[in-house]
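Observation: inputs received (chain + S-adenosylmethionine).
Thought: call the complex predictor directly.
Action: predict_structure
Action Input:
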Amino acid sequence: MHADRQSVEAIVASLIHMFSHQQYADKVIEQTLAQHPFWDLKSKERYVTDVYNVLRFRRKLDCALGSTQSQNVEFYAWQLWVAMKLLDGVVLPEWPEVVRVSSEQLKQNLAQATDAQQYSYPDWLWQKGLDELGEQWTTVAQALNQSAKTYLRTNTLKVDSNTLRQTLSKSNIETQVLPEAGLEVTQYGPLFKTNAFQSGWFEMQDAGSQKVALLLDVKPGQRVVDACAGAGGKSLHIAALMQNKGYILSMDIQQHKLDTLKKRAKRAGVHTLETRLIKNSKTIKRLKEKFDRVLLDVPCSGIGVLRRNPDAKWHLNSNSVDNLITLQSEILQRYSQMCKIGGRLVYATCSILPSENQLQVTQFLAENKAFKLIEEQTLLPGYTSEYDGFYMAAMERIS
Ligand SMILES: C[S@@+](CC[C@H](N)C(=O)[O-])C[C@H]1O[C@@H](n2cnc3c(N)ncnc32)[C@H](O)[C@@H]1O
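Observation:
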């Protein structure tokens, strides 16, 4: 292995930063990449992959290190990286920081590990997965431990997927057009520096996530509300599907996300979209029965997208998931009132837990006879999906 010292030092420094300040990986990675604009693509890739893999397999690595695990955060970060490489069979360079642990000892320690340690999940989440998904959980947990692939959503307001593929290929970024929607990146390059990105021809969006706006079944000229819009991944897709005709109201409780959405909408050439901050319950009440389509892409545990955010499993806990489940049910109950009679409501999460998904919808339908279920889709990594894990349910307001 050619271990590039500068990127390994950056990996260790990033881990120290995350462990000491409880910061999320994506922010630290973004900052580090910005500090190293001259790294070549290989160094960048190595850095990102290794940081995510240490975080993904942290519990397994802790277990492999056993009693040799250090309390000193710098030493510990080096130990994790070294243990990961040794378990992958990599011969390490003779650097002073490369702490000597034997790969035999690592493997021996792992032989005693529980399933939660082997698959590197916290005990509470492992148990929750087993309780909710039964024997499917182990396969799902393993599938969620893979590295994420990169997918693009073609902005059909500006370009078609084949033209986008050919244009990116001229910048040595290779992609393949997916049968249902978007492109998979097969050879990575500086996507966000391309003219195609600057001109709003695409957004990065998981192929599974692209199914949500499709399920909303929007038509040009309709009135649509995306009530948990965030930075607008789905709002922008909806605008493209509506061919920039009609009205989209994108709402969230966080203004900074809506500000990002406005910038993205400008780049994408979307001019049918308005943003609105949800200040209190009146913001929603005033919009009673005003929309043909209501999208509720609710806040969730994000367990379906652990490939992209592997550290999320160390930040979540059982209480935080319970609180999210309560919030989801309140949002579904209150925000669904914005749907007109004859209109469609879509509830979506990036979770694979039935308690955030099917059970929420079943309970809502039992309490709200004005709605009926039209279609449900569960994208379960390892089973029904090679993409991230998602759930979406389309309902019609019948009275
Ligand atoms: C899953 S994310 C949305 C992702 C977004 N739809 C996209 O495609 O990029 C959920 C969003 O719900 C927002 N949120 C949290 N509580 C909310 C509430 N009570 N009402 C509306 N939005 C809320 C969060 O700020 C977050 O942006």
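Thought: report the result.
Final Answer: The chain has three domains: 5-119, 151-204, 210-397. The first strand starts at residue 151 and ends at 154.
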